[in-house]
Each structure stands twice: as structure tokens, then as C-alpha cells.
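Re: the 200-residue chain
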Amino acid sequence: MPELVGPVDTWPVVGSEQQYDGGWVVRLREDQLQRPGHSEEEPFSRLVLEHPGAAVILAVDDEDRALCLWQYRHPVERSLLQLPAGLCDVAGEEPIGVARRELVEEGGFEATDWTHLASAYSSPGISQEIGHYFLARGLTEVGRGDFEPEHEEAEMELRWVPVQELADAVLAGGPVDGHLAIAVLLATGRGLAGSARPRD
């Protein structure tokens, strides 16, 4: 297989300034970089969106339907069909732990079978965010416990959508939520969900 990710190899940073820290999820930093071995050149500026990463869950029931959330997203000024997901913002918590917690909090379900599908950088030209994608099966409804949704989450609508319909919609050309597209195409492409999944 081709090499897709190199080792950590930070280019020289000769200056750094925090541009934004609103105390919510992300911070914006501006770094001044130089090409390795070219200290005679003028530094150049790059913005870095500091993000803790996220776990994304494709939860699929016995009828091959995915648990989806219809949610308003202000930056794109529209509602999107999305998957349960949550930030990896608790020190020491592994992505699978985040996934288990978020499936309960956002969907009200637990799962017995978990498969890590992939981890992928969302937009490495500007953001540190990495998404960890999981397939969850063996679902049991448990309720949200003491989780109280607020803001956009208070308006979320839970929907069950056949996985193959999601895959067809993604392949129709979008626009769609990127995390949903990645998770669905990974699961259907590997024959773990959707019409390609072997039947008992």
C-alpha cells in the first residue's frame, strides 16, 4: 500500500501568536514558518485551527438502518443529516470511549459490537482536527441518562435511515456532511453495512 502519512516532522517555527481563544472547542493560532534548510528565506505565515479531534459513530441496527441526527449548523446556515459524534476533549480518554459516551448522550443507545473504520484528518491545510470513525452494532436503547442537550443539540431530530440510502445519497454528489460521507463509504465499501453486507 502507498505511504499516506509521514512521521511527525515539524518545520522550523520562528514565531507564533494566538489569534483567537473564545473558550469553546477551538483556538486559532498564527505561526511563522521557514522551509527546513532555508533559513535565509523570509518566514511565511500559516494559520492553525487547534482542535481536539472527534469520534464519529455509524450506529447500525438489525434492519441495516443508521442512527442519524438532523441538526442545524450555523456556519453553513442549514440543517444537515449527521451521525452521532463528540469531541476528544477529555484528557486520557481514548476515541472509543468518546464514541461510546456520545452514542448514549446524543442517540440514547449502547452497542455491543464496535469496529474502528479509520482515522482521518479533516482539513490538514488549516486544522489539527482528526476524526476517528467507528461502526457500532448490537444496539440497545438506554436513554440519555442525565445528559441535557442545549443550543443546537436541543433541536436535534433523531432519524433512522437505511445505510444503503445514505451511501446512494452521498454518491449522488452532495453537498453532505463530510463525517457522514466518510463513515458510510468506509462501512459500505468494506461490506460491513448496506447492500454489500453478507446476509445471515
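The longest helix spans residues 95-107.
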